[in-house]
Design brief:
The two termini are 23 Å apart. Helix 5 links the parallel strand 5 and strand 6. Helix 4 crosses helix 5, helix 6 packs antiparallel against helix 9 and helix 7 runs antiparallel to helix 8. The protein is of the alpha/beta class and 370 residues long. The chain has 13 helices and 10 strands. The protein has one domain: Rossmann fold (3-Layer(aba) Sandwich). The protein has an 8-stranded mixed beta sheet with strand order 1-2-4-3-5-6-9-10, with helices on both faces. Strands 7-8 form a two-stranded antiparallel ribbon. The chain is globular.
Length: 370
């Protein structure tokens, strides 16, 4: 598939027509101001303000959905001599691919590449680089799961010659896997790993419903400005991110680096469906007619679930029900209370405690790809 021209991407995304040098100067000035604020708040600290991501050198490949969206995947090739089974990696809500490929030491993508897998870092219609068709309707989680994931699987298999692909998703990335399998089945999924991906939720019916209805009054293409909010909050952030998202083992400069470079605006349609889950108490479609966990029952899907006792957004009991639903081989990695929501990806301990088990689990199921 030929990549869309850069001008088309800017037009579809509605970005203001400014020159690249001008944008770069504005960004540099903003980062310098935030770094200065950090130094003012922490005059005794020897820690740098923020570590910028150093992602893999990748090729960008494109896939097209049946309803006309075009979106990229960032391809990290298998190490020389690797067998090249395709693995799709999907990030969570409000972040980008840097959560999965931050630096040489903090990169699930590179761990899988070194193990001989062909890695595809997924972007969907919810990401900035995606290009919408003319007069595209509003979208939510159901649309991404029904349209984007099957198209991404098809493209990854086309590029590698595989019959099926492997999948790893963090938070919303894992929930998308459940929703896609619940709607489309799992025939194209060789095996899957989800990290910190809840399927049950403490019910907050009245508040969630009120906020969901209020969001419905906004223009359909509204995005919550979480990128700017995260960047402005970075000077006050230490390793302990708000809400316990990260714990002390994640260095403060990495935490602030993610806030500066790894945050993304949230499309209101995705947030509305997440509020629907809080309203009803489980992972479901927009109308609450499909319980996505129940829809996994009997599916031949080898599944590993990674969860953490210290994750306030996804307690282990919220993440494990799919293990009882699928018919394939299952495995649980339950981390202790010293791990938060992003630590399984960005904590220095993750290479041994998380990445290695994922590589082993997927490695033992390579043959299912062919």
């Amino acid at each position: 598939m030929t990549p869309p021209p850069p001008s088309a991407s800017l037009t579809k995304l509605g970005e203001a027509p400014s020159s690249a040098p001008e944008r770069d100067l504005v960004q540099l000035a903003a980062r310098a101001a935030l770094a200065s604020a950090w130094r003012g708040l922490n005059p005794q600290s020897r820690e740098r303000f923020a570590q910028a991501p150093s992602p893999s050198a990748v090729d960008r490949v494109w896939y097209e959905t049946q309803d006309g969206w075009t979106a990229p995947m960032h391809r990290v090739p298998a190490a020389p001599g690797g067998s090249g089974e395709p693995v799709i990696l999907a990030h969570g809500l409000g972040v980008n691919r840097f959560a999965l490929d931050f630096s040489p030491e903090l990169s699930l993508a590179r761990a899988l590449s070194r193990a001989g897998f062909e890695v595809f870092l997924l972007e969907t219609r919810a990401d900035r680089a995606a290009i919408a068709p003319e007069r595209a309707p509003a979208f939510d989680v159901d649309d991404v799961a029904r349209q984007d994931l099957p198209a991404a699987f098809e493209r990854a298999c086309q590029l590698t010659g595989a019959r099926r692909a492997l999948y790893v998703g963090h938070a919303l990335g894992g929930q998308l896997l459940y929703a896609s399998a619940g709607q489309n089945g799992s025939d194209d999924i060789a095996a899957a790993v989800t990290l910190c991906a809840p399927v049950t939720f403490p019910r907050q019916a009245s508040g969630a419903r009120a906020l969901r209805l209020a969001l419905g009054l906004l223009p359909r293409d509204t995005r919550l400005p979480t990128r700017a909010a995260a960047a402005l909050s970075a000077p006050r952030a230490g390793a302990d991110l708000p809400g316990g998202l990260g714990l002390a083992a994640m260095s403060g400069d990495v935490a602030r680096g993610m806030m500066m470079f790894g945050a993304e605006d949230i499309p209101q349609g995705l947030l509305r469906q997440a509020l629907r889950w809080l309203e009803v108490g489980w992972l479901c479609d927009r109308h609450n007619t499909i319980d996505y966990t129940a829809a996994l029952r009997g599916q031949d899907l080898p599944l590993m679930v990674v969860c953490a006792e210290g994750d306030p957004l996804c307690r282990p009991e919220q993440a494990t029900p799919p293990l009882l639903a699928v018919r394939g081989e299952v495995e649980l990695v339950n981390l202790d209370g010293g791990w938060g929501h992003y630590d399984p990806l960005l904590d220095p301990r993750a290479a041994e405690a998380v990445f290695a088990p994922i590589v082993r689990f997927l490695g033992s199921r390579r043959a299912r790809c062919w």
